[in-house]
C-alpha cells in the first residue's frame, strides 16, 4: 500500500502543478496516470505544439512546459504510478481514500484530486468513407513530430485552436500549407486567426473556406484530396492530410465513482474549492465543469492552488492558514503557519 496525503489522478500540467502547490504546504502527493510518461495530452499528442497563454512565456512548447513543471516539483519528491488506470476509489471510515488501479496497485491518501484532463480520448474523425485506409499513410490526427512534415505539402482541416496553431507553426516548415474549414468564421483565438490571415496575404498559407474535404485518393498513400466548396468539387495534391476536429472524451472508470456528472465532466463547487459531491474528492482542470468554466491550462493552475489549500484546511482543522508569497518565504519555509510567516517577514526586513 502506497501512503500519501493527496492522490492525484492525471499527470498533465494541472496535476503536476498541484504537486508544487501541495509541496508548499508540506503535503505529499502520489500521481496515477494511464500514460507511460508524465505530461498527459501535451506529452502524448502535442509535444511540439506552441502554447501562447502561459503567464511569462510569450510562447512555450508543450513538451518544454511539461519538462519545466517536472523540474519545479522534483524538490517535493512526488510518487508516480504510470501506465496504470485508476479503476476504483473507496472512502474509508476515517474519511481517507484507497484508489486501486487496473494492475492492483493501491494508494492510500487523505484526499483525491482528479486532474484527468479530458479523460481517455480519441480523435474526432471526418466522415470520409475510406479514411481508415490512409491512416498512418498520410492521414495524421496528431502532430507529434513536426519535422516529418518538412518540405512536404500539408492540408489541415478544422477551425479551432489546434488547426490554427499548427497552420501557423508548420508554415515555417512545410513546402505548402493549406487550411480548409467548413465556415468562414473560426472558433480559435482571435490573435491566431489574424496570424493565419496575415500568412495568407504573405502567400505562406492557402486558406479555403467555406469548404469540406469529401474524399481521399492515392495509391497506398495520400496523394489527392477532394474538396467541395459552395457546391463545386475540385482536387488538390498533398503529402499529408491532418484533420484536427478535436477529441472525443470519455471519463472511463471515473464515471462509476458516484460523482455528479454533467456532459461528460465532473461537477464541482467552484465558489469554494473545486470539491465534488463527495467530500474529500476534488476535480481540477479540464475534467471538471461549473458555471463559466474555461478549459485553459492557467485556469487549471488556479483550481489546483485552491484545491491544495482546501485539503490543508481539511487535514488541519483549527490551524490558521496564513498566505505567504514565495518571494518572501521561499519554497522551503512555506507551510502556512502564522509563526513561520512572522519569521519570514522579520527575516525579509532584516
From TrEMBL:
What keywords is this UniProt entry annotated with? FAD, Flavoprotein, NADP, Oxidoreductase
- Positions binding FAD in this chain are 14, 33, 41, 46, 86, 121, 286, 327
What EC number is given for this enzyme? 1.18.1.2
UniProt keyword NADP, yes or no: yes
Drop me one GO molecular function for this one.
NADP binding
Keyword Oxidoreductase (UniProt): yes
**Which InterPro entries does UniProt cross-reference here?**
FAD/NAD-bd_sf, FAD/NAD-binding_dom, Fd--NADP_Rdtase_type_2, Ferredoxin-NADP_redctase_2
Cofactor binding comment, as recorded: Binds 1 FAD per subunit.
Per UniProt, residues of the FAD/NAD(P)-binding domain are 5-291
Cofactor dependence: FAD
Show the catalytic activity: 2 reduced [2Fe-2S]-[ferredoxin] + NADP(+) + H(+) = 2 oxidized [2Fe-2S]-[ferredoxin] + NADPH
**Protein family (similarity comment):** Belongs to the ferredoxin--NADP reductase type 2 family.
Q: Which PANTHER family match?
A: THIOREDOXIN REDUCTASE 1-RELATED-RELATED (PTHR48105)
Subunit arrangement?
Answer: Homodimer.
What protein am I looking at? Ferredoxin--NADP reductase
Question: Which organism does this sequence originate in?
Answer: Weeksella virosa (strain ATCC 43766 / DSM 16922 / JCM 21250 / CCUG 30538 / CDC 9751 / IAM 14551 / NBRC 16016 / NCTC 11634 / CL345/78)
Amino acid at each position: 500500500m502506497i501512503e500519501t496525503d493527496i492522490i492525484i489522478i492525471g499527470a498533465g500540467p494541472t496535476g503536476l502543478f498541484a504537486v508544487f502547490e501541495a509541496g508548499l504546504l508540506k503535503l505529499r502527493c502520489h500521481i496515477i496516470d494511464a500514460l507511460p510518461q508524465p505530461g498527459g495530452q501535451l506529452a502524448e499528442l502535442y509535444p511540439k505544439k506552441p502554447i501562447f497563454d502561459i503567464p511569462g512565456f510569450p510562447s512555450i512548447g508543450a513538451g518544454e512546459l511539461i519538462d519545466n513543471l517536472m523540474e519545479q516539483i522534483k524538490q517535493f519528491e512526488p510518487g508516480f504510478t504510470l501506465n496504470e488506470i485508476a479503476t476504483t476509489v473507496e472512502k474509508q471510515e476515517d474519511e481517507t481514500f484507497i484508489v486501486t488501479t487496473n494492475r492492483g496497485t493501491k494508494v492510500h491518501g487523505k484526499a483525491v484530486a482528479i486532474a484527468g484532463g479530458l479523460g481517455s480520448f480519441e480523435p474526432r474523425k471526418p466522415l470520409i468513407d475510406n479514411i481508415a485506409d490512409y491512416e498512418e499513410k498520410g492521414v495524421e490526427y496528431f502532430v507529434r513530430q513536426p519535422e516529418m512534415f518538412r518540405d512536404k505539402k500539408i492540408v489541415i482541416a478544422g477551425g479551432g485552436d489546434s488547426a490554427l496553431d499548427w497552420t501557423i507553426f508548420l508554415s515555417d516548415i512545410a513546402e505548402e500549407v493549406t487550411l480548409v474549414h467548413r465556415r468562414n468564421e473560426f472558433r480559435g483565438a482571435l490573435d491566431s486567426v489574424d496570424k493565419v490571415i496575415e500568412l495568407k496575404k504573405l502567400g505562406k498559407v492557402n486558406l479555403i473556406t467555406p469548404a469540406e474535404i469529401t474524399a481521399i485518393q492515392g495509391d497506398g498513400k495520400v496523394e489527392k484530396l477532394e474538396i467541395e466548396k459552395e457546391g463545386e468539387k475540385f482536387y488538390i495534391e498533398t503529402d499529408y492530410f491532418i484533420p484536427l476536429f478535436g477529441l472525443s472524451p470519455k471519463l472511463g472508470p471515473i464515471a462509476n465513482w458516484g460523482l455528479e456528472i454533467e456532459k461528460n465532466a465532473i461537477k464541482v463547487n467552484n465558489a469554494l474549492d473545486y470539491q465534488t459531491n463527495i467530500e474529500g474528492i476534488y476535480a481540477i482542470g479540464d475534467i471538471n465543469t461549473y458555471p463559466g468554466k474555461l478549459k485553459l491550462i492557467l485556469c487549471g493552475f488556479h483550481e489546483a492552488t485552491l484545491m491544495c489549500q482546501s485539503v490543508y484546511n481539511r487535514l488541519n482543522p483549527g490551524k490558521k492558514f496564513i498566505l505567504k508569497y514565495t518571494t518572501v518565504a521561499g519554497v522551503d519555509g512555506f507551510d502556512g503557519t502564522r509563526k513561520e510567516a512572522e519569521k519570514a517577514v522579520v527575516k525579509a526586513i532584516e
